[in-house]
Amino acid sequence: MAQSERKRRRAGSYREVRPGVWEVRASKGRRADGGRRTVSRTVEGSELDAEIEAARLVAELGGAANLGESLTLEQFYWGIFRKSDSNRGKPRSAATLRQYDSQMVRNVLPAIGHIPLSKLTHGDVKATVLASTAPALTKRTLRAVLLSAYDDELMDERPFRRRITTPQRRKPQRAPWTAQEAVAALGAMRGRPLEAYLILGLSGLRMEESLGISPADIVPQATYDLVTGTEVRTLTLVVRRKYTDADGLVDEAKNEASVRERPAIVAGRDRLLAIVAATRPDPGDPAAVEAWRRSRLVPLRGDTLYKRWKSELGALGLRFIPPDMLRHTSETLMQAAGLPDTVTSRFHGHAELKTDYGNYMRPGAATMEDAARKVHRLLSGEDPCGA
Q1: Domain range list for the chain
Q2: I need a labelling partner for 74 at 20 to 30 A (CA). Which of 120, 124, 169, 383 fits?
Q3: Helix (H) or strand (E) holding 221
Q4: Cα–chain center distance at 370
Q5: What is the SS3 assignment for 16?
Q6: What pLDDT score does 10 carry?
Q7: Alpha-carbon distance 14 to 53, whole Å?
Q8: Are the CB atoms for 109 and 75 separated by under 8 Å?
């Protein structure tokens, strides 16, 4: 079979050298000898795969802006966006890309994937978002993709400058555990398989942080109390890894604020030390010690944890909250204890205080009643903080 005619793009070209096999080329700049700097690659698949690879090559050569009006949203997404770093300068996680892929394949690309980025209008984007089966997720995904294209100078108008209001399907907000419920859980789960996860969660760790903690990350320490002049024993949790079902065990935290050392909840320290001691290998076996340091104290997948957690709470007669809501419980209890919000936020590894207010702090009925009584005392001319 004869080779197909080479199809040229603004800064790349491709041709089918045999059925399903394409030769892709891109050029930019000059070599030291004055000749054009050209990169070629062989791709198997459809013509769209060849187009996407051509866009990717151009981007690798630093010439994405030269693609001009020829680059469609679909070509940009598969060829450039998915290979680029996030706005934090790091590769996107597998979990994030899986969520983006789901929205793009189901709701975006069938509708507007064929449209060149330079011709994509606010009306196109708005219609796609509103027709989506998950408008809020589609909007979030498209915002990330199109802002990346704008930064690459592939769109003249900054996307989402005009509002797109998505319908809100709000679910009833589940209340975190009260102090009494947390105490009951610590007692009921004593010696059971998920006890370590319960203690780590009530200590304020995210679910992926609790699943990434190694026994070696739980460190007994001593601090000096400047007020009393006495030594205080503590148990520190060193947060530096995370585990997700999509990415597995990753040697990094969610963000810079997430890398932290924080004390474990006091009521669970002795039990956590006992759990760690039960896993400790013979110190004379270096290989076993190294494997222990790299192991996970809670060696479960996230989906497995959820099922076992729900079953465990039911068997113990405890009110169900999702396993990631132990963190909500921790924040809410700290707020009820009167700790400054800034301390609570930093304790939990948040970069911004609005994250706590918007997602985690959920004062219960007792806290609200206390607030009402303090206001009443103020109106009565009394000390609001009095008994």
Answers
A1: 1-70, 85-168, 179-320
A2: 169
A3: strand 218-225
A4: 35
A5: strand
A6: 46
A7: 9
A8: no
User: Are the beta carbons of 193 and 237 closer than 8 angstroms?
Assistant: no
Residue 138 CB partners (closer than 8 Å, separation 6+) = 103, 107, 108, 128, 129, 132
Contact 65, 153 (CB under 8 A): yes
* Of the candidates 185, 190, 99, 186, the residue with the CA atom closest to the CA atom of residue 139: 99
Question: For 10-35, how does the pLDDT look when each residue is reduced to its tens digit (9 = 90+)?
Answer: 446 777 788 888 887 776 655 566 66
DSSP 293-350: HHS-SS---HHHHHHHHHHHHHHHTPPP--GGGHHHHHHHHHHHTT--HHHHHHHTT-
Q: Torsion-angle region of residue 259: left (phi > 0), alpha (psi -120 to 50) or beta?
A: beta
Measure Cα distances from 245 to 106, 272, 307, 348 in Å.
22, 24, 14, 22
Q: Which helix (H) or strand (E) holds 61?
A: none
| Largest separation between any pair of C-alpha atoms in the chain | 95
Q: Which token pair is 226? A: 């400047």
- What number of other Cβ atoms are within 10 A of residue 106's Cβ? 14
Here the tokens at position 310 are 């729900």
107 within 8 A of 138, measured Cβ to Cβ = yes
CA dist., res. 213 & res. 227, Å (int): 32
Residue 167 CB partners (closer than 8 Å, separation 6+): 135
Q: And the tokens for 387?
A: 């008994």
Note the helical H segments in the chain. 47-60, 73-79, 94-103, 109-112, 122-131, 135-151, 179-188, 195-202, 207-212, 269-279, 286-294, 302-316, 326-336, 341-347, 353-355, 365-379
CB of 48 within 8 A of CB of 109?
no
Distance CA 264, CA 76 (A): 46
The string of pLDDT tens digits covering residues 277-320 is 999 999 899 999 999 999 999 999 999 999 999 999 999 999 99
State the pTM of this model.
0.64
CB 51 within 8 A of CB 94: no
Q: Which residues contact 35 (CB under 8 A, 6 or more apart)?
A: none
